[in-house]
Amino acid sequence: MLRNARLVLPDRTAEHASLLVQNDRIARLLESTSDPLPTSDSTIDLDGLTLFPGFIDVHIHGAMGVDTMDAEATDLEHVSQFLATRGVTGWLPTLVPAAPANYARSTRAITQAMKDEEHSEQPRGARILGVHYEGPFVNSAQCGALHSQFFRSFSSASQLDDLPLIEQPAAKHMITVAPEIEGGVELVRELDHRGWIVSIGHTRADFEVLDNALAAGARHMTHFMNAMPPLHHRSPGPVAWGLLRDAVTCDVIADGIHLDVHMLQLLLKLKGVDRLMLISDAIAAAGKGDGEYEIWEETITVTDGRTRNRSGSIAGSVITMLEAVGVMSSLGVAEVDLAKIAATNPARLLGIDQDSGSIEEGKRADLVALDSDGRVVLTMIGGMIIFDDRKKDD
Fold first, then answer.
1. DSSP 273-289
2. Category of 229 on φ-ψ map: left (φ > 0), alpha (ψ -120 to 50) or beta
3. pLDDT of residue 394
4. Element (DSSP H or E) covering residue 21
5. 50-53 and 306-308: which strand pairing?
6. By CB neighbour count within 10 A (0-12 exposed, 13-18 middle, 19+ buried), where does 46 fall?
7. Which DSSP category does 54 fall into?
8. pLDDT tens column, 277-307
9. Residue 148: what pLDDT?
10. pTM, to two decimals
């Protein structure tokens, strides 16, 4: 039993409320202090902490010195443990364009990490939910920090054999593509047919191509406004298209570096909280502080929280979802809406929103308790406490 909490529910907050957790599920919500508390094996008094659904990061390359391209299963577990301390309860290890042998090694490690999670009596950290391929079918004119020598066009469905699947029944497969590449729209159609989550990014596509990609199954956009041409009044491009198409959702890196905070405010106003979500796009340097790091076969420098590769481009971020939530909170985003953009909307994108992403009876007990300063005090995954930073009596 979790009692005396501020619950962030899908449509409101509830003060001095309680949650009954049974096994890995939210069994009952009690919003009134007059309701008798049901019998429970143990009770945790959250003392007014604010309880959110656990954050879900669908785009993260690593943290704490671990790069998903090079990681073994145990390394990924370390990332999961770190993310749990930052309120993340589910994540998609994200891969950059690379040779097929590198993809095969990375996906074997992800598969093994998911198997280890499945057979563990208690979760050790945030759940790995699948994999996100950022590329290789993207536009070299918008490569950002990605290595364009590994970019590809599309001509045959057999090319997808070079993108290994995660060999777990519940694994989600997400991919970022630029539909204007040769064969791009047909690629989207083939991926959608196979059940992939297709996102548009690293792109310069025009409205016609983007509309064709939408019709073929691409309904999301990766780190919106980044790795895309800027909005221009005579050449609107993918930014205007994403703003105009209500059927399309967008994710953003809310670190105050990738997007100015005023642009975040503009996106909130124009796109709305139901069609926006947060990602970290964090690299292996996240959690390590400023310095120089060897990542993706080059030196990436982190100075005052800003990443730069050898060409001077931003190379991912060093934030977590927690910091992104903090930035959006500082812009006046209400707690109910913070839960949407950090948990509910990512769950919906992955197709797991019937099971996760909000505090409702019957859903997984993936929860994070924050104090008034936005600090993680407790993280619960599958009904089990994974991180607990409550002050203990001396």
1. TTSEEEE--B-TTTTT-
2. beta
3. 36
4. strand 13-22
5. unpaired
6. buried
7. P
8. 999 999 999 999 999 999 998 999 999 999 9
9. 85
10. 0.97
Coil, helix or strand at residue 74: helix
Average pLDDT over residues 351-368: 98
Q: What is the mean pLDDT of the chain?
A: 95
Question: With contact defined as beta carbons under 8 Å apart, do 364 and 373 qualify?
Answer: no
Would you list the DSSP string of 115-151? HHHHH-SS--SSEE-EEEEE-SSS-GGG-TTS-GGG-
With residue 358 as reference, give the H or E element that holds it: none
Which residues carry out catalysis?
A: 281
Using only C-alpha atoms, what is the Rg of the chain? 21
CB 342 within 8 A of CB 56: yes
**Phi, psi at residue 94, to the nearest 5°?**
-115, 130
pLDDT in tens, 55-85: 999 999 999 999 999 999 999 999 999 999 9
310 phi and psi angles, rounded to 5 deg:
-65, -25
Which helix (H) or strand (E) is 17 found in, with range?
strand 13-22
Cα gap 254→321, rounded to integer Å: 9
145, 146, 148, 150 alpha-carbon torsion, rounded to 10°: 160
Q: Which of 111-125, 234-248, 364-378 has the lowest mean pLDDT?
A: 111-125
